Amino acid sequence: MYTWRQKGCVRVRKEIQKNDMAREESQKNHGNASVTLRTNKITPVFFGATLVLWLGSVIFEIVFKRVELVYVVAGCCFYQMANFVMRFAVSKDPLTVNTSVSLFHSTICSISVVFILLNQLASKSFEEAFDHSQLFGGTWPGAYTALCFSCGYFAYDQWDMLQHHLYSGYIPSILVHHFLLLICFTLALYRNVTINYLILTLICELHSIFLHVRKLRRMAGVRNAKSKIVKMEWVLSWMTFFLARLGSHILITTKLIRDANKFGKGVELPLALFGMAGMNLLNVFLGLDLLKAHKREIKNSQQQYHRD
């Protein structure tokens, strides 16, 4: 009987120690999170303030100048509704929901851009479709609405990431990316210029599809780099990165530089070059991150294989 009691006491003490350790770890993690939030308050404040100013500007333009900008607000509402549906049907996890909606947008946007381009190339020659007068002052059928909807998505996504802290670092590249796009897209929509140029920049959403697929795949626990599905995903990801993202943005920048003398003395050319410089720089960083991720995934799979 004494031995049984001794064992029971030892078991109880171990459980108490285990609970205490878990509580200490939780408090430690909570403390670290609090420190991070305290020292990084400027990021959500800055990007949140710019988003509020942007929304006020858009509403002013809709009420007093350009009613067709209502499609920007419609885009915000559409993707926010998609967020609610994903949260109800897929997962309650904010990151999973955000990534699922981003995949949804990339798919819709890619289909829209490809359809717009094919429609133009079916009715015009390549030289006519991509002439400076068309890219700068023209608006392809469906281009304005598609750009408005994408602008609305980037505003929604910025808000969702700020609301759920889905970013890292003091200057998160994803928030900077959305900030640049909102400035360039909105000013172009206000002045109704360079709409077709900006539609061409959205070809990169073809690559974004595979970025979001990879993220969701890893969330689901599928991380074996040797599986055929994962290998095919990486092949398509690298192809679309070099062709649809890096290559297309370099070509657009080259076109802007070649046609610089055709722009006149407005702010359009400096703003376009500034925006493309930012995009190209972010593309380089993204490519380096992808390379590191690919190598890490292969290394982890090899270690898992040797362990098994």
From TrEMBL:
Protein keywords: Membrane, Transmembrane, Transmembrane helix
Biological processes per GO annotation: membrane assembly; phospholipid homeostasis; plasma membrane organization; regulation of membrane lipid distribution
Protein location: Membrane
Database matches in SMART domains: TLC (SM00724)
Domain TLC: 91-299
InterPro entries: TLC-dom, TLCD
Entry keyword annotation includes Transmembrane helix: yes
Highest taxon above the source species: Eukaryota
Matching PROSITE patterns: TLC
Membrane topology qualifier: Multi-pass membrane protein
One GO CC term, this protein: plasma membrane
Transmembrane segments: 45-64, 70-90, 102-122, 134-155, 167-189, 195-213, 234-252, 272-291
Coiled coil spans: none
Protein name: TLC domain-containing protein
